[in-house]
TrEMBL record:
One of its GO terms (cellular component) is membrane. The lineage of its organism: Eukaryota, Viridiplantae, Streptophyta, Embryophyta, Tracheophyta. Residues 64-118 form the Trichome birefringence-like N-terminal domain. Residues 1-26 form the signal peptide. Belongs to the PC-esterase family. TBL subfamily. Keywords: Membrane, Signal, Signal-anchor, Transmembrane, Transmembrane helix. It comes from Gossypium anomalum. This is Trichome birefringence-like N-terminal domain-containing protein. It is found in: Membrane. Residues 119-401 form the Trichome birefringence-like C-terminal domain.
């Protein structure tokens, strides 16, 4: 973890990022969960529609000083997974590992246990109460898309057929809970700022060109969204340098990735500061999602990757794929912000989960792997994306915990 110099950028792309957006059809079960012993609190909505109730039980309340990102994974095959892979019609093929042939399902049965407190139990109806008349939007790459899908799956089972909808409107995907007038949305923007990879389905993977000072085209679609959740990392980490423009679109130059990342984040910061109303909107930023491309990092002497891993890493671990220079840039940019952005630092907790990637049970360039490719995990295992149900559910449990705290009134 220490000896990693700022210049060292690992190339994270032996596997091409699959990018096909697929959409399923709806099936559902109604299942009311409102707890009789809940306390009623008020939450802050838009001023014109204040005073809607969110039920917050004593177990939901967190000590604000508790660090949710420090803790361990506990085996819990009673409460986990929080939904079944085949009960959520909105999952894309890229994440449905069991259906794609993964033989073990242990990766679904781990619960994240923070050291100093408990995560509140995820209650879809409470989340819908919070999101009433609101929009929650996830913005980023395919890793972020999995978090969006996870959130939809966590929520959708409590909504009866006909009262929910799902549509693709590239670069957006939109899930709507009609009775709540609540939407959970996804917006494809792998670099957050604009780039030649912005087409949601037909984007270049090998050729990258980022417009470091351009964000307004995307930003238009983000304006007024009540809860924004950003993420951008893995697309930057292809080579130590990246082609980018700043100022003139014609003036393409090679930038060090760290330099380019900082400029892009500053563009994003300026957009936030000029656009966000901190009284009405909440902004989150997800830290980098770790990769497990080289098994020698947790099993010295081995020469594989995340394929055939069935258990989380025990003890301290930080892979070289999670670039600390990028982490430091985020730290600095967020520190300077004039509005509050909550940084969800999920990197460390996800680092332990070498067992939870899609490996050969996912897609490559929009297609499931062939039998021959599956037989060659050294070349074809995907150690970037995660199976669902899985690790992104935990990211959402943490996001939910924060939302629950910020939309309740402690008076
Ligand atoms: C880019 O990185 C190289 C080493 O990887 C370093 O020598 C150089 O100073 C960096 N340039 C800038 C502008 O940061
Ligand atoms: C849950 O895990 C325990 C301990 O590994 C095991 O004995 C039990 O059979 C498992 N239960 C189910 C339903 O898989
Ligand atoms: C539904 O939600 C949208 C987006 O949050 C909001 O603009 C609109 O006013 C809401 N509609 C009603 C009828 O409250
Ligand atoms: C994808 O984009 C490329 C370059 O912009 C274009 O030439 C190609 O026709 C597009 N393919 C599809 C299927 O839209
Ligand atoms: C930048 O673009 C040029 C021209 O297309 C290409 O030769 C070069 O390899 C690119 N640099 C990087 C870091 O991708
Ligand atoms: C997977 O792991 C098991 C036990 O750890 C081992 O016996 C088996 O040979 C491994 N399979 C491959 C393809 O590496
Ligand atoms: C995120 O967590 C890691 C590991 O716990 C830590 O090293 C890093 O400094 C944290 N990042 C920020 C920006 O706080
Ligand atoms: C940011 O959050 C802190 C702590 O919750 C609060 O004290 C502060 O006033 C907030 N700042 C802004 C600009 O909203």
């Amino acid at each position: 973890m220490k000896g990693q110099s700022a210049e060292r950028i690992q190339s994270l792309f032996p596997v091409l990022l699959a990018s096909l957006l697929v959409l399923g059809t709806a099936q559902l079960v109604f299942d009311s969960l409102k707890s009789a012993k809940s306390y009623v609190f008020q939450y802050y909505g838009k001023p014109e529609k204040l005073r809607k109730s969110v039920f917050v039980s004593p177990e939901d309340r967190m000590d604000e000083s508790c660090n949710l990102f420090e803790g361990q994974w506990i085996w819990d095959n009673v409460s986990y997974p929080l939904y079944e892979e085949n009960s959520c019609p909105y999952l894309v093929k890229q994440t449905t590992c069991l259906k794609n042939g993964r033989p073990d399902s242990f990766y679904q049965n781990w619960r994240w246990q923070p050291r100093a407190c408990n995560l509140p139990r995820f209650d879809p109806l409470k989340l819908l109460d919070i999101l009433r008349d609101k929009r929650l939007m996830f913005i980023g790459d395919s890793v972020q898309r999995a978090q969006f899908e996870s959130m939809v799956c966590l929520v959708q089972s409590v909504i009866p057929k006909g009262k929910k909808s799902f549509k693709r409107d590239p670069p957006r995907k939109i899930f709507k809970a009609k009775e709540y007038n609540a939407t959970i949305e996804y917006y494809w923007a792998p670099f957050i700022v604009e780039s030649i990879s912005d087409h949601a389905t037909n984007h270049t993977v090998l050729k990258r060109l980022v417009n470091l000072d351009s964000i307004s085209k995307h930003g238009k679609s983000w304006e007024g969204v009540d809860v924004l959740v950003f993420e951008s990392y893995v697309w930057w980490m292809y080579r130590p340098q990246i082609n980018a423009t700043y100022g003139s679109m014609e003036d393409v130059q090679e930038y060090n990735v760290t330099t380019a990342y900082r400029i892009a984040m500053e563009t994003w910061r300026n957009w936030l500061e000029s656009t966000i109303n901190p009284h009405l909107q909440k902004v989150f930023f997800m830290s980098m999602s770790p990769t497990h491309l080289w098994s020698w990092e947790w099993k010295p002497g081995s020469r594989g990757n995340c394929f055939n891993e069935s258990y989380p890493i025990q003890g301290s671990y930080w892979g070289t794929g999670s670039n600390l220079a990028i982490m430091e840039i985020l730290h600095e940019v967020l520190q300077d912000l004039k509005i509050n952005v909550t940084f969800l630092n999920i990197t460390q907790l996800s680092e332990y989960r070498k067992d939870a990637h899609t490996t050969v049970f996912g897609e490559r360039r929009g297609k499931l792997l062939t039998k021959e490719q599956r037989a060659d995990p050294l070349n074809f295992a995907d150690c970037i994306h995660w199976c669902l149900p899985g690790v992104p559910d935990t990211w959402n449990e943490i996001l939910y915990a924060y939302l629950l705290q910020s939309y309740q009134n402690f008076l």
